[in-house]
Amino acid sequence: MSIGILVLAVLILAAAGFVLGRQRALATAGGDPRRLHSLPGHYGQFTAILAAVPALVLLAIWLLAQPLAIESRIAPMLTADSPADRSLAMADVRRISIGLDLLAVSDRLSEDAVASLSSETLAPRLRQVGTAVTQVTPEALSAAKAHRTMRHTLQIWMTAAVGLTAATCFVFALLRIRPDFRARNVSERFVMWLLIAASLVAVATTAGIVLSLVSETLHFFRIYPAREFFLSLTWNPQFRGGSDLGIWPLLWGTVYISIIALIVAVPIGLLTAVYLSEYASRRTRGWAKPAIEILAGIPTIVYGLFALITVGPALRDWFAQPLGLGASSSSVMTAGLVMGIMLIPFVSSLSDDIINAVPQSLRDGSYGLGATQSETVKLVILPAALPGIVGAVLLAASRAIGETMIVVLGAGAAAKLSLNPFEAMTTVTVKIVSQLTGDTEFASPETLVAFALGLTLFVMTLVLNVLALYIVRKYREQYE
Amino acid sequence: MTDAAAPASPAIRDGSLFAPDAHTRRRNAAERRFRAYGITAVALSILALIVLLVSVLGNGAGAFRQTFIQIPVTIDAKIVDPKGNRALDEMKKVTTIGYGKQLEASMLAAVAAAGVATDGLSRKDIAGLLSKEAAAGLRGMVLENPDLIGRTITFRALANGRIDGYFKGRVSMDSAKLDSNISPAQLVLAERLRDAGLVTVAFNPQFLLGADASEVRPEAAGLGVAILGSAYMMIIVLVLALPLGVAASIYLEEFAPKNRWTDLIEVNIANLAAVPSIVYGILGLAIFINTLGLPQSAPIVGGLILTLMTLPTIIIATRVSLAAVPPSIRDAALGVGASRMQAVFHHVLPLALPGILTGTIIGMARALGETAPLLLIGMVAFVREFPAAPPEGFFSPASALPVQVYNFTQRADPAFVERASGAIIVLLVFLICMNAAAIILRRRFERRW
Questions:
Q1: Which residue of chain A comes nearest to B305, CA vs CA?
Q2: pLDDT exceeds 70 at position A58
Q3: Domains and their CATH numbers in chain B
Q4: Which residues are within 8 A (CB) of B433 and not within 5 positions of it... i.e. 6 or more apart?
Q5: What is the pTM of this model?
């Protein structure tokens, strides 16, 4: 926890800097804040920022660089055949090295005692202090000892460097303080950089998503032919290799379920929106709209459970079995129906916004020509709102494609290309979950295929979203 | 030159103007039909909501009540403390098997004392009415309070899951005949014991406070670890997402120049809000676990992923409420000599705060119910130990409420359906509280300019 103490020390120094900087500014101005360029607090902020930020940045860089530096020195001590072996051995060394620290504390060992520990009896003792190692080889132990010594030396250097930086900057800041020094500009520029950095987190997230998906997908295509992935019609992963990993059965399941969901959600959602915005009294609207929006706030796992324990068995007993279409309670119909319910508020609230954005003058014109209310809706409002509604439907489709929990619990796990809606099928998202939560090795194609599936999903939803946002934006401009 | 064709004149009416003609009747019928469609759609949506809630609540209400068997147990020092020195380390060596034997004996004695006929059930069958978890409960109680040794206490033991199911209507005599875990004779005995007052169905605090239990002991499964894990993640989300989101929105709304770069950021945020949640799970697995080496199934990883997912929601809400503060406020602040930064932080931000907090709470409520990304980072693992207090607890394995629901649904014993629905009730109660807080905040503090 010495890093925590170091950070705390720097922060205390910064707090002291705030008080001292303030006082010094007032002192240089002869106790009259009006002679200062900035408020006294700004001088305090300036000192605090200078005391804390460079030191903490140094600390962060050091913490990132230290393991790399140590491991590049340790690596020659280990004999390993492949990079994967090497990283496993390195992880072992790291664990033992930290275990030695724990052992030294719990058994009160001196440095010499730690250095003379032998590898034979060490593993059980390490396990006792909570280090998960199965066996300790002499090679790993000597590497771990070197690792530990280096770690400790570097730790001392780090403390010294960070402390020195903080102190130097602190003194430098205090010396800079004069009545005409523009402390406010400095502290505000710093805050501005913080704000910009925060807004870049969103960009970094997208970059992280794209990078991790693309790099692992490329990795996948290096060990599994892309042709097979995009063109094969079977999905049949095997634990021992030799799997068929064709995406089409999964895409078909995804699209089929989404279509059923949209067939349920779009008419109901649209008619709900029309009724609530054009017909309903203020009172009806007042309770019905929030009630429907409750559906949007319910977590998808709840819908999943609803599909699993209520809708699935009901559909099986009342439709699938009497009609002789199947005996499975998880089916495309189950997942599609429940997902449709989930999408109703999504479609209705988006359409509601769009219908309300249609100018009143269009309605008045239509009524003036003698149209009834429903004719106005059908012939004037809906055509005028059509682009927006298409956008809403596209957004709903993207939501349906990316939905996971409902299909995990409601659709089944069998990858099939079938037209029967009462049969269990599976989707891209279900397979991402099952491939990544299984016990397969991470570098196997059976696991890596999940990243290729994830990328497919990401691209599909991205295209739908961009298209929808573009259409909705275009449409809004039309009436503004 | 009047060669423009005159419009075809409609048929001349020959009836009263007060009697609608066929065309008008048709139009009016269409109007009524359309109205009926609308009402049907609204009714269907509300019906779906009601069926959903009734199904979950109906299935889950039973999880809060549990069947207990109340028996006097004499804690024999010879068994639980063979050395007789009350040293905790020594006593911990006695496993639940030792306590189980004691419970078995107490159970038989209690049944005999109550004068209930056992119809020749074997000792094992009678003790089988107790949950396998009961011995562990007794052991925990004794280790916590060694003074109990040698005394006779009234122990409230969990009943076997099948007995519990029988009193809740899940298990019947017919199903017990086919069940290797319970026999109809045992159910008859349970019923007699209930009449004798030994078996009761009562509120079960362990469902909310206890840890998860193994696949064959649904009666002992609790949500404690999951609730704690979810709480840890919400703390992380609040601490990270609120400042980051507010800072990003202030920059974009108040300071950012209108150029291609800020446009890119804005489109980016709009898209992030619509990225499927499972993709965030893949991101977390690839970046936080595989690259940065953070531990699997730890709340810190879940918290970070949920932070990234919540950020767009918070940013969008914050920008709306910042934009709603009228420019006159900024102008007035600038007019009396504030810098732009001071105008924002001293005047605009406090006025926008209710809207920001409302958006944050709603974003967190959504994060609380999120399941899919947490499945990918290993939160499906079976976790029995409570995580430590923060900050170490952020790095130790934990579960999360929605993931616990998923876990329960993956188990074979039908008793877990009740547990899963019960967990959802707990989840929904938290969501309702959060959303109510958001609504109250909006009603009380939001200002219309």
A1: A205
A2: yes
A3: 64-204 (no CATH), 224-445 (1.10.3720.10)
A4: none
A5: 0.87
